[in-house]
Amino acid sequence: MPRTAEQNEAARTATRASIETAAVRVFARHGFADSNMRQIATEAGLSAGSIYRHFASKEDLFESLLGQAVEGLRMTAAQLSVDSDPLTLIRGFTEVYLADLASGDGAAEFFMVVNRGYTTDTPPGTASRLAGEQRLLWEAVAKLVRRGQRAGAFAAGDPVGIAANYFALLSGLTSMRLAMGDTMPAPDVDLVLRTIGGKEQ
């Protein structure tokens, strides 16, 4: 019995997701410049030719990943900008981030690939695509800290500096996860919040 249009679309979506996951692993291992579509196809368990039915080039593939990163940054900034308890918001975001790292489903590799693209601007234009959304996220966290300080939930200090420390800590934990894999102890949310000046509830 032939597949329905819905089944065909579901299969296509699943294959695209598998290719994107493989691309993240390959980009994380080799860097964008030294990666190629054949490596990505092998990682995905597909033929080199079939991968081109979904993505015209590795640049096209990276663009898809970049779009996901931009949207993720935008959504996270919006979620952290709502009028709610600052410590609850930052705790919730931290819990999700650390759970993603611990899951072993490629989140750490994805974060590294995006960050490497931003810092090296490879492929060209990556840094400018991410800059505005990253700024929004940093500003959202700094404002959250400022509101939390007024409510007595965060220690005194420059909110922008505290936000920088917070993101530096998350970045460091991401690097450790990549280096240590499953042997890395699960990071403690309360410890992260104490490091950036958040008081435990």
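(the above was protein one; protein two follows)
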Amino acid sequence: MHNTIGAWIARHRFRRDLSRQIELGNYLVNDIGLSLEEALNEIQKPFWRA
């Protein structure tokens, strides 16, 4: 159970940070190897979806 909650928290933080990177500029998203479309799709997922 703790692993599941930890994964949810990690996903939430990653998606929050990804959203902030998009706001600062697409070049940050490109630096981590994602297209803008991929990043936008990722941040729209609920925290429980991998």
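Reviewer note on protein two: The helical segments are 2-24, 26-31, 36-43.
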